Amino acid sequence: MKHALLLTGLCIIGLSLIAPPSSLWAQATALNMQLKQKELEGVWTQVCYEIDGEVMSSLPGSGHPNFPGAAATVPYLWKISKDYIELGPDNHLFPNSRFSYELSPDRKIGAMDLVAIGQDGQKIGQGKLRALYSMQDDYMIVCWNRDARPENFTTSKKAKGWLFILRRGKLAP
Fold it and tell me: How far apart are CA 20 and CA 91, in angstroms?
C-alpha cells in the first residue's frame, strides 16, 4: 500500500512537470486551497510585529524601549473567515481594519493578496497588500508589503514591509 501511494505521488509530480495543467490538476489545486483556507480560519492573537526592521510586542503590558507609553492594554486580534480578515483590539473597537483576501494568487504557495474593505464590503483605497504567510502548529507568520510581494519573512527600512507573528486563539491575560 505504501508503495502504491508513493508511486501515485511520484506520477502526479512527474505529470505536473511535463504536462500542461489539466482540469484534474485545477480541481486538486482548488481543493488544496480550500484546505489551506480552513487552516487559516479562526481567531488569532497578534504576539508581536516588525516594521522597517524594528520589532515590537503586541501583548498587553509589554512596552517598547523607544516608546514608553506605547504598551498595549488589550490583545490585538485577527479574525479570519472564509471571505474576510478583520483586525483590531479585543474590545468594542473591533474591527478597526477589514480585508478581503485571496490565497495563492498566481499559483504561488504561501502567498496571499489582501484588499482593504469597509463594513459594506466595498474596496477602500488603492491597490492591494501582497503577502507571504507560513503556518506551523498554532503559529502563523504574515509578512506584507504594498509595493511588491516580500521574498522572505523580514523587514527593513529599505523594504518598507510589515511582519506579524500570530498565535491561534485568544491568549489569556
Answer: 50
Contact, 89 vs 96, CB < 8 A? yes
Structural element, H or E, at residue 48: strand 42-51
Q: Distance between CA 70 and CA 123 in Å, rounded? A: 30
Q: CA torsion sign, 32 to 49 to 163 to 100?
A: positive
pLDDT digits (tens, 9 = 90+) for 102-143: 998 878 889 999 999 998 888 987 789 999 999 999 999 999
CA distance 90 to 43: 11
C-beta atoms surrounding 30 within 10 Å: 10
